[in-house]
Amino acid sequence: MQDFAGRVAAITGAGSGIGRALAYELSRYGARLALSDINEAAVAETAAHALKLGASETTATRLDVADRHAVQAWADETAAHFGTVNLVFNNAGVALTASVEEMEWEDFEWLMGINFWGVAYGTKAFLPHLRRAREAHLVNISSVFGLMGIPTQSAYCAAKYAVRGFTESLRQEMALSKSGVRVTTVHPGGIKTNIARSARVAKGLPQGEIADHFDKKLATTSPERAARIILRGVRHNRSRVFVGPDATAIDLGQRVLGAGLEPLVRLFAGRSLPVAPAAPAAPAAAKQPPAAPSAT
């Protein structure tokens, strides 16, 4: 897909960050945009500004991507309203900083519902509409944390690894079926978005300090640059897109070092990632006197 003019693009998480930047970048080409976000006011703001930038038409929908039926309804309404769907960006995501031991089930399920199931729901809901389009491309956002495991990020890594495997499998299926739907997995590195400030953290961890560290030390790429890189990947039909120098370096490190990269990850994590104190060990069970022999 070389030309985005007049193409219909559906974007989740369009109220901020990469989703908003994608909407604005596509607007400059005259695309038609179906935008969604859990924050109704934020996505409405994106839609209004997109029109000023040149979008042919926009819709703004409050959407919880963890709600399968709501995602299906939005996909069907989008196709009915615009008559077709050419581009889908399953972008909405959240973060959670907690060790496996400290992580609450509720927080784990919250993250998986958005970061993995939201992508799966969006893919399944839009795929029939994409198949009917003359040109179509599906983009699912994974992460560099879909390339390697990181301490305190087990839930996030689990979701992003799942997105990667899910999307790569789908890409093979589309190729085998000779479908016109192209599929891309995106692995962003540190992007200057609000994800760290809206993240959930384990009890005892300083959320403000974690967010400050992310913003100052790890977020090396702007959402606008990320959007341009992603759309360039769509134009060139890239199977995988790495966003940011950190993403490229991590991919290279995995290819060259494999498991040998893990000591470097631990060294980095030990210096920069806070870990909640370990829970106290359970007291040893009191020693019981030997049981009396049973009568025979």
Automatic annotation (TrEMBL):
Q: Which InterPro entries match?
A: KR_dom, NAD(P)-bd_dom_sf, Sc_DH/Rdtase_CS, SDR_fam
TM ranges are: none
Please state the span of the N-terminal signal peptide per the UniProt entry.
none
In Swiss-Prot or TrEMBL terms, this protein is called SDR family NAD(P)-dependent oxidoreductase
A single Pfam family, by name?
A: adh_short
Source species of the chain: Yinghuangia aomiensis
Q: Which domain of life is it from?
A: Bacteria
Q: Which family does it belong to?
A: Belongs to the short-chain dehydrogenases/reductases (SDR) family.
